[in-house]
Write a structure and sequence with these properties.
- The chain is 46% helix and 15% strand.
- The chain has one domain: NAD(P)-binding Rossmann-like Domain (Rossmann fold, 3-Layer(aba) Sandwich).
- It is an alpha/beta fold.
- The protein has a 7-stranded parallel β-sheet with strand order 3-2-1-4-5-6-7, with helices on both faces.
- Helix 2 links the parallel strand 2 and strand 3.
- The two termini are 33 Å apart.
Length: 248
């Protein structure tokens, strides 16, 4: 039980990578705050996990709701050991000049500013507890950007840089900060990444992944589990590629 009695907040946990992490962490003994704007989805995941999970409806772009999420974790489980910034948003693959400002603002609010909100909320708690772990779901798009997802790529590059800077600044507080860089996966955002979900587009995307498939929620969950566990106690400031060789 690698996360026995640890308390983990996971945003965007009603589906996709977040759901995978929530269930995998719970299997290893963690108590889970299933946070998502999708209330029904969050409740479903929490119910499937059982008594060691609660659902919290959260808009991560709003500081007040992030604070309520963290308060819920403290109120129910008494502490916060792991903060996973997994909620994300993207624009459809296409011309960067045709992305509307409202979409751009959502990308920056969810992929970037939400990390700021959660950090301000959890770091004082973790410091009082003697340490903690912060993990962000970034993307291979932040390491090897390609045309068509420019503003999304930029937001994930920001997340990677923030991770590294946070890791250095928070190390004296015994708070480790890392991020995951998945390749495109079987999640609700896949069609947006590809522009259109067709066999031809899927084949194009898979062709640039040496291991020949998309990532899965379990791939990402297992990587996050290791980073969250004591097995990775000397790992901080890392952007871990979970990409089947995509970034080689």
């Amino acid at each position: 039980m690698r996360l026995k009695d640890k308390v983990a907040i996971i945003t965007g946990a009603a589906s996709g990578f977040g759901e995978g992490m929530a269930k995998r962490f719970a299997e290893e003994g963690a108590k889970i705050i299933v946070a998502d704007l999708n209330a029904k989805g969050a409740e479903r995941v929490a119910e499937e996990i059982g008594e060691n999970a609660i659902a919290v409806t959260t808009d991560v772009s709003l500081r007040s709701e992030v604070e309520e999420m963290v308060y819920a974790a403290k109120s129910v489980f008494g502490r916060v050991d792991i903060m996973v910034n997994n909620a994300g948003y993207t624009h459809r693959n296409g011309d960067m000049l045709k992305v509307e400002e409202a979409t751009f603002d959502l990308i920056t609010a969810i992929n970037m500013k939400a990390i700021y909100h959660s950090t301000l909320a959890v770091v004082p708690i973790m410091e009082r507890q003697g340490g903690g772990v912060i993990i962000t779901t970034a993307s291979t798009a932040g390491l090897r950007p390609r045309p068509g997802l420019t503003w999304y790529n930029a937001s994930k590059g920001w997340a990677i840089t923030a991770t590294k800077s946070m890791a250095v600044e928070l190390a004296p507080k015994k708070i480790r900060v890392n991020c995951l860089c998945p390749v495109a996966g079987e999640t609700g955002m896949l069609a947006q990444f590809m522009g259109e979900d067709t066999p031809e587009r899927r084949a194009q995307f898979k062709a640039v992944i040496p291991l020949g498939r998309f990532s899965t929620p379990l791939d990402i969950a297992n990587a996050a589990l290791w980073l969250a566990s004591d097995e990775a106690e000397f790992i901080t400031g890392v952007a871990l590629e979970v990409d089947g060789g995509r970034c080689v």
